[in-house]
Amino acid sequence: MPPRAYLPGLFVTGTDTGVGKSVVSASLLHAIRALGARAIGMKPVASGCEPGAQGWRNEDALLLQAASDPTPRYEDVNPYALPQALAPEIAAAEAGIEIGLEPILAAYARLRAQAEVMVVEGVGGWAAPIDARLDQIDLVRALDLPVVLVVGLRLGAINHARLSARAIAADGARFIGWIANDIDPQMARMDENFEILCRRMPVPCWGRVPYSPRPDPARLAASLRPQV
To answer: How far from the centroid of its chain's Cα atoms is residue 10's Cα?
Structure first.
């Protein structure tokens, strides 16, 4: 039997910041690895990094690095590690850094050479810019990746999800799936909201991640059905 062909990668975006893109991306890595593929995560631009003996490190990028197999170099996982926990455009300006596509594409190529599937996590929500000259659609086009949307289930999720879906389509990206993340355990009628989204979203749901105060991506991977 010939080896299975996988999608080369996914670009993971969200309905907003704080919707759990990193946990879902790490869970996707575990789920894809469970299918038998070598999978590596990447967060090209990360703001809110801490200094250490080996340089600036971002908690979300470290989560993706830990969920990857084989384990990649941190500098390739996160080429732009920005100290301030601000919008990337502002954080980069404060650090005196100009974000460019070339270093990201070079790091992606090094990672892609090691993996069958790449999971690339964006910044904030879909419309959040990377810097003054780059939007996320520019990176998606350069990497030629389809888009998966993480929907944080909280008040307003239906509106945010549908607007995000329209924006992704309007930008010309290939939108292939969405994942629900139960980020607010106090949300009223969460199941009903999820069911409305299942009926209204234009692409398949790849799963629903249950709420956990200390999420474990390896365990949460069982909630996902990645169509790679």
So the answer is: 8
Residue 71 is among the residues annotated as catalytic for this protein: no
Please give the model's pTM, rounded to 2 decimal places: 0.96
122 is in an annotated binding site: yes
174, part of any domain? yes
Residue 151 is part of which domain span? 9-223
- Tell me whether residue 27 is annotated as binding: no
Q: Rounded distance, CA 226 to CA 195, Å?
A: 19
Q: Is 53 contained in some domain? A: yes
Q: Is residue 2 part of a domain?
A: no
Residue 160 and residue 153: Cα distance in Å, rounded?
10
Does the residue 44 lie in any domain? yes
Domains held by the chain: number: 1
**pLDDT values of the chain reduced to their tens digit, one per residue, 228 residues:** 566 889 999 999 999 999 999 999 999 999 999 999 999 999 999 999 999 888 999 999 999 999 999 999 999 999 999 999 999 999 999 999 999 999 999 999 999 999 999 999 999 999 999 998 999 999 999 999 999 999 999 999 999 999 999 999 999 999 999 999 999 999 999 999 999 999 999 999 999 999 999 999 999 999 999 999
User: CA angle, corner 83, sides to 77 and 86, nearest 5?
Assistant: 100
Which structure tokens are listed for 183?
A: 């980020």
Residue 55, annotated ligand binder?
no
Q: Maximum CA pair distance of the chain?
A: 54
Active-site residue, from 30, 33, 43, 160: 43
Adjacent-strand bridge partners of 127: none
- The CATH number of the domain holding residue 122 is 3.40.50.300
